[in-house]
Amino acid sequence: MKTYPFTAISSMLVLTLLVTGCGQSGQQAAPAVKTSVDSVDTFTKEPVKLTVVNHGAGINTETDLENVILKPVRTMYPNITIELVKGKSLNDLIAAGDTPDLVVTSNFYLDALIEMGLATDLNEFVKTYKIDLGRLEPETISALSRYGKKGELYGIPYSMNYGIMAYNKDIFDKFGVAYPKDGMNWDQVIDLAKKVTRKSDTTQYLGIDPGLPQVMTRPYSLSLMDAGQEKAALTTDAYKSIFSKLRSIYDIPGMIDPKTNYLKDNIDFFLKDQRVAMEPYWISALSSRVLPLAQSGQNFNWDLVSFPSYADRPGLGREVDFHLFMVTPAGKNKEAVYRVLQAMQSNEAQVMMNKGGRLTALKDPQIKKDYATDLKIFEGKNLAGVFSVKPAPAPVSSMYDSKIYTYLSEAMKSMILSSTDINTVLREAEEKANKYIEEEKQKKK
């Protein structure tokens, strides 16, 4: 990939926050931005249309786009509209010369998007538009700093995700077991799961649905690759320890169901079947799934506690996960794009988005306490407990992660259903991953 010169950074704030990372190079610098920004009133009144592609940020429908981005942006720039491009992959759009102006994504997809040439260095935007990165959750800036070898900033966070553990109060009441508490570690959660994994009449209740293996590996900041990002690293003691905890969960009598698809998210067991006692999950995903239940009168007696920690990492919950804007180099109306990013950083936009069900990226606890109040689904719930732990540092990611996680899930399934030993399933997964990595490297030669 051709390398372009990067814009120098003169903002002391950015220099302080963005340290040299281990990310990719080869992205275009941001085009020249004016040294001063016209006021909102002097920005063009002419209609401006931008395009955006969702890549793992949960902006799947026009309603999502309206509630999360358009409505907040419209308070400052009513003349800017944004079209959500659907039905085409980013590769297809790039090949057709239809690269969108913006990509909304999660930090876990940055490697692949940078490799595709979809990243612009936004340091000059931060400086010119006087964006105070110090207002954002520090974990977001720390995670972004890994991707710029020279301090490049390849995205602007706008919303956070947060790990939670939801639980079904009725199941605990049925068996006379005390509810989960904030600050529990995984060993305590597994012991609690044993007490509520029971059969009543014809219904088998599950103490916990641990989900895909990354639900437990990522909060331990486990990368899938070795330190040099050359080979997969799945046979480490840390991975063996996490799989041992998974093994102890599925060793609980009644936990294994041969008909269950262990290669997918089985949240419906908790929300619709209501036969799972504890569900480690994401707050944004839970919000979007509980809302239609509440609206249809099918809600049930549930509550929240903080995401479980590891005994040797007390106070750390699920890994840092946040949604961000990436500005593509090929976008034609950069000033309008920057105005969107500017608007989404305002307190007004963050308050509006936060109340509507997307957690603010600002570290302001006063805004956070009103999370999803417009939806009313957390009334009477232990929402404050969710924030009693801090996000764990995100693992170093790679462009191979998505595929490797499928091998890791297959390893977990083999361990569960075939009783294959942990060393064997992890070794086989690592071998598959290394074969895939080598094949991908050969394609680039």
Count of helix runs: 18
Q: Roughly what fraction of the amino acids lie in strands?
A: 5-15%
**What would you report as the Rg, rounded to the nearest angstrom?**
23 Å
Uncertain stretches of 5 or more adjacent residues? 1-27, 29-36
Q: Class of the largest domain, according to the CATH hierarchy?
A: Alpha Beta
**What is the CATH superfamily label of the largest domain?**
Periplasmic binding protein-like II
In words, what does this structure look like?
The protein is α/β, with parallel strands linked by helices. It has two domains: 12-160 and 321-374, D-Maltodextrin-Binding Protein, domain 2, CATH 3.40.190; 163-318 and 395-443, D-Maltodextrin-Binding Protein, domain 2. The chain has 18 helices and 14 strands. The chain has helices at residues 12-17, 62-74, 90-95, 110-115, 123-128, 138-145, 169-174, 186-196, 214-217, 237-250, 268-271, 283-295, 334-344, 347-355, 365-368, 383-386, 401-417, 422-443, and strands at residues 48-55, 80-84, 102-106, 156-161, 163-168, 199-200, 203-204, 206-208, 276-282, 302-306, 316-319, 321-327, 359-360, 390-392. Helix 2 crosses helix 13 (334-344) and helix 2 (62-74) packs antiparallel against helix 14 (347-355). The radius of gyration is 23 Å and the shape is globular. The model is unreliable at 1-27 and 29-36 (pLDDT under 50).
